[in-house]
Amino acid sequence: MAYNFYIPTRIIGERGGLKKLHLQNLPGDKALVAISCGKSAKQSGSLDSLLQELKLAGKDYFVFDKIPSNPTTESVSLGAEAARNNNCDFVVALGGGSVMDASKAIAVVAANGGSWWNYVAAGTGKGLPVKNKPLPIVAVTTTAGTGSEADATSVITNPETGEKIGFVHPGMFPVLSVADPELTLGVPPLFTAYQGFDALFHATECYLSNKANMMSEMYSLTSAEYIGRYLERAVKDGSDIEAREGMTFANTLSGMVMTLSGCMSKHGMEHAMSALSPKLAHGAGLIMLAPAYYGHFIDIHACDEKFIRLAKALGGQNVEEPKDFLTELEKLMAACGVDNLKMSDYGITEDDFASMADNAASSMSRVFLNDPVPLFREDCIEIYRKSYR
Fold this sequence. Notes:
- By secondary structure, this protein is α/β, with parallel strands linked by helices.
- Helix content is about 50%, strand content about 10%.
- It has helices spanning about 40-45, 45-55, 75-85, 95-110, 190-210, 215-235, 240-260, 265-275, 280-300, 305-315, 325-335, 355-365, 365-370, 375-385, and strands spanning about 10-15, 30-35, 60-65, 90-95, 135-140, 155-160, 165-170, 175-180.
- The strands form 2 sheets. A 6-stranded parallel beta sheet has the order 1-8-5-4-2-3, with helices on both faces.
- α5 packs antiparallel against α6, α6 (about 215-235) packs antiparallel against α7 (about 240-260) and α9 runs antiparallel to α11.
- About 55% of the residues are buried.
């Protein structure tokens, strides 16, 4: 039962939770409000609602709106510079995983200076210590996908080296998070699917991981059950608040479980894909890999009973064999309209398989250590090959 559970984050998880932000003990006087470089936060009204909450709380703010869908070292540097130049003493992330990940990195660099890559402890990162406490972070999630509101991980791409690497530091746990399902109502169907499968794969990988334990398995299975029950509904009717609520809950659980267990090599393999093709949404890349990746571990009987339990969690009836998990997974992918995604649509070619495998193993070596059975370079290349369209 050995586990080590540490999440120093107050999470407000309820419909209309954003409207209670001004009642909370916010961790500073002036916020760097970080949003994406897109239009969703402004057009949906969530930015206006957030700023009104800050005004009610008597807090000043500066809006930083230069975070791309796959955040880069450059966007982190710009955000940290904005925080310092505007005397911001805490960061409020309003958005999905990209915004929350970038905000965590901004909080580190704003307090410590230098480049984000100085602190990254993998690949070509310098692995320098984070000497100063990062700026406090408040996370307001507008998607149900990454669970970043409940963990201390930041995933950033370095365009100069072609690496996309996750970095973990306890100072990057948000001090306060808002998981308000009403903020996810405007997410388009395709992105609802991408985000929902990202949450599912956090849950499934952490369940299959050799770091899994009694506590993490409870979170993983519950998250998978809610996704199996509500993702299709949320994709088909974005106004279904019950489905949005179920997915928001599942997403937060999938973030919590990453602090108890750990994602597997599949995440490293996808990071290599979206580092090569930044327009590729992380969830979409994970979906592309899923059948062949999980099929590999099923074929070698790495954890048969766990695959059977996951198939049941997704709603499978008369489940008897590990491969029934693939049946349930592919059924859900088809129901959500994401069963025919193509790597080739993002400029990835078969000639890229070997270099992506090498990139994944180098930049994300730590997640390969979590696999229930070791995954080798040849295995990665074969999974890419089977996943390719």
